[in-house]
């Protein structure tokens, strides 16, 4: 399978930052995926997979390993009875479109989550009281040694995380949905999208929620807003003036700008609220937040 060199990962992240991958491949079948994973194992290359890069911050220096982008069969979505069967690389929007056209409801909550089906498993993505764990029947997880089907329990799905390890790739997913008239699905989607538009920046380059909501009366967004961070800027990145738990690429931002903003946000949340915010966004490459001085 063809390996590309030096592909800039800023092309594959919604924030639009990130340096090159040492090697890049687009496997289209489970066999191709296993072949390329075995190659990485034999050459001791670390492996990462990108979905839509919608919760991903990649180091400006890039990633010294193999990055995979699932394509072809691994990015298709189709309906089989009351099941939605999708490749790990299928965009949520495509999967939702297929479900709606077939009159299957239950996946509408994902209408405002701009990722892929596999990325959703890794993050247990969710919104509006729904999440992947609630509809997932099983997922085919592939690594260099084997391919095995796992249930939500075996995947360890919980709030915005799973037990998937680097190098374990979600190649295919089966969701259990339920019959619902397409017109009802359409109207629910329109309602959820309007709610989203009213609360969050939907026309800016971001990577979604920066921090997980802490165990506190304030959400991460409200806490950072109370810290006076809305609109705060470092370099080309700024905390969204609309929602303080989003960082926008305001003007040719670099990942180091986003890291500096996250460091400042964590410092203020700790000093003013005694809370250690934990990042939701996934880091790829050599990226580290500055330590909190306690
Ligand atoms: C505007 C905006 C709004 C958002 N709203 C929400 C929301 O409401 N709820 C929510 O939960 N999230 C939200 N997000 C975050 C993001 O969309 C989700 O986390 C999404 O599930 C990430 O999917 P992705 O395919 O883009 O993954 P990526 O960002 O590409 O990757 C995230 C992680 O998943 C891993 N990964 C990706 N594909 C696979 C695969 N096939 N197998 C194994 N691991 C994989 C990556 O290696 C990485 O570790 C939002 C993001 C944006 C930009």
In short:
The chain has 294 residues and is an alpha+beta fold.
Write the layout of secondary structure elements.
Elements: E1 4-8, E2 20-25, H1 30-42, E3 47-50, E4 56-58, E5 63-69, E6 77-80, E7 83-87, H2 92-101, E8 104-105, H3 117-123, E9 126-127, E10 130-131, H4 132-135, E11 136-142, E12 147-150, H5 152-155, E13 169-176, E14 178-179, H6 182-199, H7 220-226, E15 233-234, E16 237-239, E17 247-249, H8 255-273, E18 282-284
Parallel strand pairs: 2-5, 3-5, 4-18
Antiparallel strand pairs: 1-2, 6-7, 7-13, 8-14, 9-10, 11-12, 11-13, 15-16, 16-17
The protein binds flavin-adenine dinucleotide.
Can you describe what's shown?
The chain is α+β, with helices and mostly antiparallel strands and 294 residues long. It has a 5-stranded antiparallel beta sheet. Strands 1-2-5-3 form a 4-stranded mixed beta sheet, with helices on one face. Strand 9 and strand 10 form a beta hairpin. The structure holds flavin-adenine dinucleotide (FAD). The site of flavin-adenine dinucleotide has 32 residues, from strand 3, helix 3, strand 9 and strand 13. Flavin-adenine dinucleotide binds next to strand 3, helix 3, strand 9 and strand 13.
- Strand content bin: 15-25%
- Measured between the Cα atoms of the first and last residue, the distance is 50 Å
Bound molecules: flavin-adenine dinucleotide
Biggest sheet, spatial arrangement of strands: 6-7-13-11-12
Find the count of extended strands (DSSP E, 2+ residues).
18
Mean pLDDT: 96
Spatial extent as radius of gyration = 19 Å
Largest sheet: 5 strands, antiparallel
Helix content: 25-40%
Order of helices and strands: EEHEEEEEHEHEEHEEHEEHHEEEHE
| Estimated structural class | alpha+beta
């Amino acid at each position: 399978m063809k390996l590309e060199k030096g592909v800039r990962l800023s092309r594959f992240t919604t924030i639009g930052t990130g340096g090159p991958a040492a090697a890049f491949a687009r496997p289209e079948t489970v066999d191709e995926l296993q072949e390329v994973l075995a190659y990485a194992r034999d050459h001791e290359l670390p492996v990462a997979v990108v979905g839509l890069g919608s919760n991903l911050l990649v180091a400006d220096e890039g990633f010294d390993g193999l990055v995979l982008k699932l394509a072809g069969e691994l990015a298709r979505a189709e309906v089989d009875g009351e099941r939605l069967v999708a490749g790990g690389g299928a965009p949520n929007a495509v999967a939702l479109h297929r479900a709606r056209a077939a009159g299957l409801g239950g996946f509408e909550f994902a209408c405002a989550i701009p990722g892929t089906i596999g990325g959703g498993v890794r993050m247990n993505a969710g919104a509006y009281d729904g999440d992947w764990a609630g509809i997932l029947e099983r997922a085919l997880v592939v690594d260099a040694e084997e391919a095995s089907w796992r249930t939500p329990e075996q995947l360890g799905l919980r709030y915005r995380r799973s037990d998937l390890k680097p190098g374990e790739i979600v190649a295919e997913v089966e969701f259990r949905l339920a019959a619902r008239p397409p017109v009802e699905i359409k109207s629910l989607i329109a309602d959820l999208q309007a709610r989203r538009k009213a609360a969050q920046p939907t026309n800016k380059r971001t990577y979604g929620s920066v921090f997980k909501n802490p165990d506190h009366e304030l959400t991460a967004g409200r806490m950072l807003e109370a810290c006076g961070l809305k609109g705060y800027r470092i370099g080309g990145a700024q905390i969204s003036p609309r929602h303080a738990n989003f960082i926008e690429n305001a003007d040719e931002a670099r990942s180091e700008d986003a890291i500096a903003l996250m460091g400042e946000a964590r410092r203020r949340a700790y000093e003013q609220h005694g809370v250690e915010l934990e990042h939701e966004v996934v880091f790829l490459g050599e990226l580290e937040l500055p330590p909190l001085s306690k």
